[in-house]
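User: Please predict structures.

Assistant: First:
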Amino acid sequence: MNIMLFHSACGLRPAVHAGAERLRAAGHEVHVPDLFGGRTFESVEEGMAFRDEIGRDELLKRAVLAAAPHSDAGLVYAGFSFGGSVAQHLAFADDKARGVLLLHGTSDIADDASVDELPVQLHIADPDPFEPHDWLNAWYLRARRAGAEVEVHSYPGAGHLYTDPDLPDYDAEAAEQTWRVALAFLDTL
């Protein structure tokens, strides 16, 4: 599978590279663009402030430019937190998308969005301060209405970026379960 993996608001940290290596070890081709030009952060809040300085439109433009050379083959779009929102945006706009793997984050879905049975898998902390239950319920309904085939896996007690071993949110058990389930999902695409 050809995978475009986007980093979180913390930037292209070692955990993103480690995730890409896990995917490569499972036989996938993985592309990991740096939307922040080398900047990394120790907290989601710091990263979000930097993200806001750059602006959503500019970041989506960078993501589209990174994905474009690979999209003809049909990409699986994946991302961590903020990167998940980027992955979701690109996948819902790409009629060749093969699937979406969201780790820690989602994004709004336009009322007129339409995909043809696009497989989407979300892994999320429960509760997650950036993805409250009301938001997730509405997101799920909008994604299904748009035509996505959605699976949601939640991890009680885990912190927001629980797959990053260098951050306080890290939860080893939840991270291992996430990767196990995600790799099985990718095998079905």
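Second:
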Amino acid sequence: MFHFQIRNRNRSRAGVATVAAPETAKDPRIHVDLAHLQSLEGPAQTLNLLPRQPARSVLAGRHSSHLRGRGLNFEELREYWPSDDVRAIDWKVTARTGEPHVRVYTEERDRPALIVVDQRMSMFFGTRHAMKSVTAAEAATLAAFAILDQDDRVGGIVVTDTAVISQRPKRNRRALTRFLAEIADANQTLHADAPVAEPTSLDKVLQAVANIARRDHLVLLISDFDVVGPASERLLSGIARHNDVILVPVVDPSGETVPPDLVSAISDGDRQATLDTRSSDTANALGQFNRKRRAIIDRWHKRYGLPVAQLSTAEDTLPQMQRLLGIAPPANSRER
């Protein structure tokens, strides 16, 4: 089954012609509601976003940054005990007093997390299993439940083409429910008949992140990274300097390889359109558009050491996240 965003900037580039389609029942692969997102709480308990990661996790690989972990609070300065770690000795105080002293720290109670979930019209696209907007909404929800379950604060930013809705990290279910409701509401507005609006730039999104995540936050950016602005890289580098940032690009299989002879009826559940890549202009535009996005993400990954956890619309979200976090073996290694 094919799904396709009809009224957005991709339409003008691809020259897709729309026709009316019979009304169909709501498909959870096209739109999500609050009840669906809340149903992901149980599956989310299989995920682990703590600093100590399995060897297969993208957050523990040698080509990505390691999570800093929770910070430490200074507790007291006291005399050295034989059971103390010698690395904790404060040599300046020891030299001044003539007696060995150690600095005692306690681990911070939690580590705040900020989840950015993209629900702009550019995310209302999918050619295989689900819309990118649905995959992003499910990924944000699974991560939020997993973080709250590990007793950390979680907040979020929901991005639409007309607003950037921010919620500071908190450790309570009411705040989490409010975040999920914002995601569901934004997702429900994505439709072929939605008013055409200038898409929100990543500059505005990253500025909202910087205003909340001053330091020692875990920041997940779940997006297709459309509309990179002139200040996006500067803002991202500043955020990454003091926080752990994970890039979570949501892609569609058509973005990896554009079939040269694809002619297909595609739908958003209410309207139909025809995608025809036999047109060289259409195929070239789609290919160039997707290559540009990948190049930007690759540059940020290499320049700032940011982990990249790519999700695809071609399959369910949960097993993908389990593989990315090293909880399940890679797809190509599973028994047939």
